């Protein structure tokens, strides 16, 4: 699947099977929000990013309207992904149970903190929000972070 963003002309490329995997994980945590990290790589010309896999947090807090993940104890996984598959952190995903795929102020603030963190090497992370019901994903939206704003893919 390929999505484009009018703001930056950056394409997102991903397999539907990866989206299905994210859906399955999110539905398993219903009615609470849940999420994780997106891994992949940019093309040489930086006009597209390929999302290839995810990493799930070991530690997190979740409720029907909140998801806070920790990066504690994940450094080795990120290093292994880079060394073995040349994949690195490109963004995050989380679910909105019985909600829309529109980001909240909390979501935006989390992306601002991530982009400004010394531990993160990219300044324009992606955010995927999926809307789920008890049984399945209802919808999904990818966002591109830039200049303290999130821009939706179509």
From TrEMBL:
Name a Pfam family for this protein.
Prok-JAB
State the InterPro entries in the record.
JAB_dom_prok (IPR028090)
Does Cytoplasm appear among the keywords? no
List residues of the JAB domain. 16-139
Keywords in alphabetical order = Hydrolase, Metal-binding, Metalloprotease, Protease, Zinc
Gene3D superfamilies registered for this protein in UniProt = Cytidine Deaminase, domain 2
- Taxonomically, the superkingdom here is Bacteria
Q: Is this entry keyworded Zinc?
A: yes
Give the Gene Ontology MF terms in alphabetical order.
metal ion binding; metallopeptidase activity
Name of the protein in question: JAB domain-containing protein
Q: What is the lineage of its organism?
A: Bacteria, Pseudomonadati, Bacteroidota, Flavobacteriia, Flavobacteriales
């Amino acid at each position: 699947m390929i999505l484009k963003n009018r703001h930056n002309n950056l394409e997102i490329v991903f397999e539907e099977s990866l989206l299905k995997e994210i859906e399955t994980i999110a539905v398993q945590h219903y009615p609470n929000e849940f999420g994780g990290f997106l891994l992949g790589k940019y093309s040489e010309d930086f006009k597209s990013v390929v999302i290839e896999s995810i990493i799930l947090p070991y530690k997190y807090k979740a409720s029907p309207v909140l998801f806070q993940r920790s990066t504690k104890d994940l450094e080795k996984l990120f290093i292994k992904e880079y060394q073995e598959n040349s994949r690195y952190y490109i963004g995050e995903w989380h679910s909105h149970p019985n909600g829309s795929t529109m980001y909240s102020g909390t979501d935006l603030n989390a992306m601002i903190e991530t982009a400004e963190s010394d531990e993160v090497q990219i300044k324009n992370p992606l955010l995927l929000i999926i809307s789920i019901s008890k049984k399945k994903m209802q919808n999904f939206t990818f966002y591109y972070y830039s200049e303290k704003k999130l821009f939706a893919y179509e």
